[in-house]
Fold these 2 entries.
Entry 1:
Amino acid sequence: MISEDEARRRILQGIRPLPPRRISLACALNCFAAEDYLARLPLPGFDNSAMDGYAVIASSYAPGRLKIIGEQPAGVDRRLRISAGEAVRIFTGAPVPAGADAIVMQEDVTREGEEILINAEVTVADYIRRRGCDLAVGQKVVTRGECIRPTVLALLASQGLAELMVGGEVDVAILSTGDELIRVGEQIQAGQIYESNSVLLRALLQRIGATVRSSEHCSDQQEALRDAIQRGIAQQILVISGGVSVGQHDLVKSTLQSLGGEIDIWRVAIKPGKPFLFGRVGDCAVFGLPGNPVSAFVTCLQFVRPAVLKMMGASADELELEKFVARLAVDVKNDGDRVHYLRGKLTDGNFTPVGRQESHALFGLSQSNALLRLAPGLELKSGASVSVEIWD
Ligand code: AMP
Ligand code: MG
């Protein structure tokens, strides 16, 4: 049995980022930038009005009447110019006329025909958004290996980029094993259970941007398993659930070996998830997750997730789950010799373990949104400050 850290290190060591590809901006969400991108346009692109109102000269402004000499809408630059005693009717986002140094909101103005009376203090620079004040040309907008999140996508769009280079698309096959499993929609018989791991794994993997090409279910028969694995290894990653433990129906390890596969990791000091397996058959990275749903969940997040992200071109700091400092709501203790991931609920800065902390307890898992990693021997009292990993 190896440590969790050693397992992650060995997995990541063997994973290489796929060759980058060019894709349209519309498809880039959750991909990872394959190069640094620098701003080619400043933001804002030109001095513009933050309000609907009137462009004026605040520096020479004397209370009184100003003559409206024109109108400047957004979307076109009419190249207007104002002098003392004049104003331009202007709208949000419209270019500021030459000579103007402030905008007066329309709410602060009384309009009388082609003249205005200003009813408020006006200071130089009021409601003017200066060219480049948010972003300067040449400034880095995206770093290589950074995740393209919705806001980053918007920033790239603001630069006029229609396409960008991102890491390769990771194709995954999912294989759930077990004689007791049936698919949703089928009639359940005594002793059978509905197969749920493939649904969970597909959702977790799709959410990080992997492409799930196939999802199969297979019985605990060597021949059937061999065929199913052979189909699965056509993808870059094969995630198998069940059949990796020590029972006589646990055939995944021996079947992988019979196909010439190399088993790099089997059994990790992690709870839940001890029978976890990692190896390779040809070019395919194969993950064998224990069948118990919570074990499959924890090992998918801790081992499969960072490997998929690295393949997608994510930088090292993007491989970690997001962490949040919380106040522990109860006493907790890890008496065992394995790292224990407690499932809990993070609300208002408090972390409370939820449900049965057992590897089959899917309901408890469904009520949780965060994991607390407890090292072996660690004991923490209620009120302690802890760093929890959130996935929801
Ligand atoms: P195994 O790892 O194959 O020994 O399975 C451990 C436990 O997880 C057993 O109780 C299985 O019935 C259950 N299990 C295995 N695969 C799945 C699955 N795909 N969905 C739900 N439960 C499963
Ligand atoms: Mg099984």
Entry 2:
Amino acid sequence: MSVGIDQVHVYAPQLALPLPALAAARGVAPEKLTLGLGVQAMAVTPACEDVVTLAATAAARCLRAAGVDPRTIGLLVVATETGVDHAKPVGIFVHELVGVGPHCRVYEVKHACYGGTAALMLAADWVRAHRTQARRALVIASDVARYAIGSPGEPTQGAGAVAMLVGPTPRALFLAEESGVHAANVYDFWRPLDRREALVDGKYSIDCYLDALASAFRSCRRLERPALEDGEGLLDRLARILYHTPFPKMAAKAHRRLLELERGSVTDADYEASYHALVAPGLTGVAQIGNTYTASLYVCLATLLEDEARVLAGRRIGLFSYGSGCCAEFFTGTVPTGAVAIGPTGVRETLARRTLVDVPAYEELLRHGERGGEPPADFAGDFVFRGIRNDRRMYAPTREVLAA
Ligand code: CAA
């Protein structure tokens, strides 16, 4: 049975801070952020938006685009490392807001940025396990990436969600059954229960990411069928490669590591050519949105499908997911010949509706944001976080959604 992603949709907050403005405020050269890290802007959440509204908006738009009745969903998994409650999962708010029926398993998964892939693989196995019924799962990766103001991680924040409909005979990406995984207990990035912002050992986290990549990739290569010929690399069989992208330069470092692993050594010219052909096309969305933790790899996938579904029809791509702590997976998928039919995946729409904020406004939102409240007049989302009353979080559709 062929299983995979039938539809994918991205939603990110419309507020964005341009990184040159942040560089000026922090007294660093703008090129350090725009070239050194490769980030152009990062999404910032308005007070009326949180990880639930991001997830629900992406999910509602994903189901609408696919023409799927929410009541036919049998499994709803939300991956996040920005959970809003220790017991109540983000998914159950989404379940109500989006109109999923009562006969559905709903829960949340966590393993840092790997959570989205954990949920996707689990959903694919759930679909495969019931060959006689055509079952559909809704997987959502949703996060708000927060580091302390003035810390080295500050320019690698962002926010957004990706919803993926998973089922048989998919229109967006067939998932290969074999993949390479790697896990190890490391303290590279974490967020203790009492903290709002993540703690990170930045340089060490890059080493952990690259080591996990090499290990997962080697494992995937060993499982490759038909087996690789002498002198043939797995990269030779892939038309594009998408990496978990906390900042675009990380994907560049990752790609160099894989080329060196497959070819022994690589010239700068060969690396540049390979990076621009295989990796750069997937990075345009994340360069403008910033890190979205669990959603990051899938923002890259949505970007690629929106821009290149026709070119990639029938071709195989590689995907690398990394979650600090750590767990990582290198897997592959094939773009169906009909992928162009999935239409826009929300990346261009998200970027077209942006409102740029300055550094004081961004700092105010970071310090006091996500309290809930009325949406701004031009609000781009479908759902609003109204605030917390009696220890209960209150959500509602926007007036536009109610009127539609
Ligand atoms: N012009 C051009 N480039 C410049 C420059 C200038 N004027 N000044 C500096 N640079 C370059 C540097 O050479 C460096 O590039 P290379 O790594 O290629 O050498 C780059 O800009 C960054 O400079 P620094 O290393 O000095 O930056 P930093 O110390 O301020 O921190 C960071 C960088 C460690 C990534 C930090 O932003 C951080 O901690 N981020 C959060 C952690 C993270 O994202 N880790 C990634 C792996 S873990 C993961 O992927 C999970 C996850 O999502 C968190």
